[in-house]
Design brief:
266 residues, Rossmann fold, 2 domains, binds S-adenosylmethionine, alpha/beta, globular
Length: 266
């Protein structure tokens, strides 16, 4: 594997943990240890990124000099909840992963990020495995799933903290589809890019290994792979897609893998 890390590896991130929930110190301590971050008890806010465990769960404060504020994932309100209400099986995302009426599928969302696309897929009836290699994002995703997702979605979604390139190649049971949405540097004019996505970009950096991830997705035995790209962006390096599905600002490149359409073990 040529590059096994995101461009800002978590161990180089200036990250501290604070706990403002009186009964949650033990949890905060375990998380801080797992992230190799200091659990800070001072009243002065530490510099850099700060993960805070409060009464409403985990949130990430970005360094004040970035001017981006706080990231908290919430699947019950805000943009994700809005998208969940709009979701229909014939929408481009559902078509991209091959959803059909009455057939429920297992989709691996190998670039979970803020969890929005993955939660939409779960809301459309898929079982979804969300893979995220940023330990901070994996923590926020797991917390939001437990605290804010409707119970029927919570049952269908699991969050795995892993590098999907390795995870996909280690599967013993293939999913029906793999969904990829690697970070695309020029996505929209910076002022128009939503704050949450700007925070995500600052935190995880670029995804320079998207071609390698596509290769792993195509090799993992899934029936199809769908890659989200901004409209007009080049395809990810690798084999040409079988077809593309256009949406207003987005394109889904679909790679059909007919050799993988045999009987499945589950
Ligand atoms: C553009 S964001 C995805 C946004 C997501 N589709 C959503 O709806 O919120 C890309 C995410 O994929 C993650 N990622 C990229 N390559 C990965 C890999 N090989 N394994 C696991 N996560 C990866 C990045 O850390 C980042 O959080």
């Amino acid at each position: 594997m040529s590059d096994t890390s995101p461009s800002i590896p978590p161990e180089t991130l200036a990250l501290s943990v604070i706990c403002s929930a009186p009964d949650a110190k033990a949890e905060a301590r375990v998380v801080a240890k797992g992230l190799h971050a200091a659990l800070v008890e001072d009243s002065a806010p530490p510099p850099g990124y700060v993960l805070e465990l409060g009464d409403r769960g985990w949130e990430l404060h970005t360094p004040p000099e970035l001017g981006l504020g706080t990231l908290k994932l919430d699947f019950a309100q805000g943009p994700t909840a809005w998208r969940l209400r709009q979701a229909g099986r014939r929408q481009p995302l559902g078509r991209a992963v091959g959803l059909k009426p009455g057939v429920d599928k297992h989709v691996i969302d190998a670039t979970a990020g803020l969890g929005r696309d993955g939660m939409v897929l779960a809301n459309l009836g898929c079982r979804v495995t969300l893979i995220e290699r940023s330990p901070v994002m994996a923590l926020l995703l797991r917390d939001a799933l437990q605290r804010t997702a409707p119970p029927e979605l919570r049952e269908r979604v699991q969050v795995v903290e892993a590098d999907a390139r390795r995870y996909l190649l280690s599967l013993t049971v293939s999913p029906d589809a793999v969904y990829l949405d690697p970070m695309y540097p020029e996505r929209g004019k910076s002022a128009l890019v939503k704050k949450e996505m700007r925070i995500l970009r600052e935190l995880v950096g670029k995804d320079p290994d998207a071609a390698e991830l596509l290769g792993a997705a195509l090799a993992c035995g899934a029936g199809r792979v769908a890659v989200k790209r901004p409209r007009g962006a080049p395809v990810v390096d690798g084999p040409a897609p079988s077809h593309s599905i256009e949406a207003p600002n987005t394109r889904y490149d679909v790679y059909l893998c007919p050799a993988n359409h045999g009987p499945r073990l589950v």
